[in-house]
Amino acid sequence: MIYLQLLWVYLKIGLFGFGGGYAMLSLIQYEVVEHHQWLTSQEFTDIVAVSQMTPGPIGINSATYIGYVTTGSIWGSVLATTAVCLPSFILVLLVSKFLLKNHNNPYIKSIFSGLRPVVVGLIASAALLLMNKENFADYRAIIIAVLSLILVRKTKIHPIWVIVMAGFTGYFIY
User: Which of 17, 68, 101, 133 could form a disulfide with 24 if both were Cys (CB 3.0 to 4.6 A apart)?
Assistant: First the structure.
């Protein structure tokens, strides 16, 4: 039964997860933590952290890990990963044929213009979701984040170097 639930949950997430992995996080959190209660909030936060560090898209990495943790089997990982990818794969095949024929249509351009703010909202939702006591420690973390943002926006320093500097700063502060 858990495999069918996992399949259904990740098919829904794959179908409605517009905007990529970070936009999917709020959907995944709702299904896995709140609705089915397969994981605690702390476990979910840990999975997100591991999924961010692991090469590949965060939505797929988290699906793989949650599938394993939920079922205790590699087949849970395979099922969740396949289920989260399958709707996108099918939709891309269908939509690409349509868009090749209609790419200059003004209605199509309007639809994509309307989807942009929705994607930004979903990503902002994921950011708010991760602002919990496990992730957002104190004022020092806020200062590091704000200074990092200012460095990236106001200087020519590459964002990777800013991340490295923020990591070292956090290491020495904490």
Answer: 17
Amino acid at 84: V
Q: What is the largest CA-CA distance in the chain?
A: 56
User: 108 near 8, Cβ under 8 Å?
Assistant: no
Tokens matching residue 89: 């794969």
- Between CA 167 and CA 174 the distance in angstroms is 10
> Is the separation of the CB atoms in 49 and 60 below 8 Å?
no
Quote helix, strand, coil % in the chain, to nearest 5: 80, 0, 20
Q: Where are the domains of the chain?
A: 2-133, 137-174
Q: Which two tokens stand for residue 104?
A: 């200059």
Query: For residue 78, which phi and psi values (nearest 5 degrees)?
Result: -60, -45
pLDDT in tens, the chain (174 residues): 899 999 999 999 988 877 777 778 888 999 999 999 999 999 999 998 888 888 888 889 999 999 999 999 999 999 999 999 999 899 889 988 988 888 788 998 898 888 888 888 888 887 777 777 666 667 888 899 889 989 988 998 888 899 899 989 988 987
CA distance 19 to 118: 8
